Amino acid sequence: MKVGIVGAGAVGSTAAYALVLQGTASDIVLVDLNAKLAEAQAQDIQHATPFAWASRVRAGGYADLAGSQVVVLAAGAAQRPGDTRLDLLDRNAAVFRQIVPAVLDNAPDAVLLVASNPVDVVTDIVARLSRLPPGRVFGSGTILDSARFRALLAEHLGIAPTSVHAYVLGEHGDSEVLWWSGATAGGIPVAEVADQLGRPLDEAARSTIDESVRRAAYRIIDGKGATWFGIGAGLSRIVRAINKDERLLLSVSAQTPDIEGIHDVTLSLPRIVGAGGVLETLKPDFSDEEHAALRRSALLLREAADSIKL
Ligand code: ADP
């Protein structure tokens, strides 16, 4: 499988590295405004291949993206300490006006996987600029938030994270919604599992988990300036789901015709990912409180997207 990555900074190069370690891509092309950086990253990652899988990793221009099954869009400005993801919006919109036509000219059949923040709005911009069919453009959305939610619930319950099913929906950012009423283990709502196991999910436990999920990126940025390992691995996991046509259920961000009465908004919902990108979207069953929270998140994203004139 050939994978193109535009933006060879921390996130793009870590995604390439994860793809090599997982043996998902046979051919990886890194494109960056900073050609010297792309070349250096490609060589460094290529040197890992003898310890992993046979992958060809190289730097190139947009023409070298030809034949890519997936192009990961990880270019743009990095989030600075104190920045909200929406602060990045204006800076990144300009970048994608240049990148999207160049990618489409050379890889017209690729699935576009957006990683740049604010990921929901950038995904919306890329979808609007590309005019590709729905599903062919989507963003990493809340995959990490959901992974963290699952991990923290699993830890609280004393159950393997793979046995806990839980999603964070809406914006990848401050307004995100932890879908507590839909979280299950063994097909049983987590609150009930918690009671059965004598580890109740009381108000305090819930708010600790909520805070930990919602503030995770801020804490990492405070400590090391940016985040890249988690998202790099997550992007590689999404690419594998496309490559193997897994029909994997993930909370990824895509244009949504109608959610909570808001039309054409790009946000995360549980979606089936396989060959061709997002294949289906599930409609969650929310509590009243979750309905209201998701509506707030959708409205905020709709307003942010509307503020960008393309
Ligand atoms: P992150 O932490 O999100 O990966 P970085 O700043 O490390 O952020 O990486 C972003 C990369 O995007 C940089 O290497 C930068 O050169 C690249 N970039 C910025 N604008 C463009 C563009 N128009 N085309 C291609 N690459 C770009």
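^ adenosine-5'-diphosphate complex. Residues 288-306 form the longest helix (19 residues). The radius of gyration is 19 Å.
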